[in-house]
Design a protein that fits this description.
alpha+beta, Helix Hairpins, 4-stranded antiparallel β-sheet, 3 domains, Heat Shock Protein 90, 435 residues, two-component regulatory system
Amino acid sequence: MSSASKSLGKVSAVLTHRVRWLLRSSTLRLSLLLTAIFAVGMAVAILLALTFGREAVLNRVDTALEGLAATVEADDTEADTFSVIIRPLSEVGDLPKEFEKVVRTGGGTVSLKRDFRRAEDWRVLISRDKEGEPVLIAVPLDASEDALELLGNALWSTAGVVLVLVLVIGLAAGFLVQRRLARITGVLDRLATGDLEARIGVARSSDDLDDLAGQIDRTAQELERLVAQTRNLSASIAHDLRTPLARLRAQLESLPDGEERGAALEEAERLSGIFDTIMRVARIEAAHGTEGFEHVDLSALIDEAAEIYGPVVEDAGKSLVLSAKSGATVLADRSMLIQALANLIQNALVHGGPDITLFASGSEIGVSDHGPGVDPDLFDEIIKPMVRLDAARESEGTGLGLALVRAVADRHTAELELSSNKPSGLRVALNFTKM
């Protein structure tokens, strides 16, 4: 396929998309409906106006012909002129045959195929002259027909221009409203993905869409304040508890060696780890912009992660397999990605099978295992902070590992994708396609 054909195909696809996008506008649909109703109304009004106008003209002509017939004698040859035919009914043989047909029906309009006395349309009336004798009296209607045709053309042209204007105004209004709705929808999508700084901004239209935009902005502002307050509270609590926890740990280390001392130190270490993770998640969620970002080769990144955490996996009696397929280079915070992979590896160590796969493929990196896996209905739950599938919380883990991974994904506007591994297990990937 030539480049010109490809370009034409792209332009056609873009136009099709824009037309479908515009046709979704309720304002445009309402405009089209009103335009259709207006068009039908105009057509009916014009047809009625032309029909009744023609009837009125013919009635006036008939009245004039009756009056004229009553003032002449049919035998008076001077009464029959070029533009007015007045004949006794017995002397219509030299007139076109169409006149005879009308005479038999008592009068009417005659439309000739050829001009007769420079006219095609005649109004024929059977009346009585001033002697009371029945006569045929007829006049040409071409002037009246021309006037009616001119009137009809003027009405149809005006209706066409008005309809085009209404349609253009409807299209413009629909486009403007649809563009504003698209902006509102875009902001709602950003809020749904965690970008709580997204705002619509109020225009100067002072209409219902402005009211809606203002209400959404106020709601987003309040939501941002509450979320920030919650994050700060969690981080503050974790930070404030670290100091007494460190003193407690120091006091435990000063105790004589023993099983209870070791268990207490291990528990203190676990609590310290939880607080560190809470603060780390809070810092990631509170960060903005691309400060600290660099170009990261995803294939090289998983090599680095495998080098760091491979011995840990081996110590746990499991194997770490690398799968790198043309990993892309993305703009990211390297340390955050390493931390996210570490959490996924730790999660697989605790809940996965003996084999753990660390993969990079295109714009995607992640970890998969062959453990028992997770019910897909719970995928959205397990990425929430402090959520654990073990309701009794007897198994190892804090419920913060995947929450930190999600925070890292959100920080990079990446998709966190959870899926079932074949034949069993869990596959967790960070997809950077949207970056």
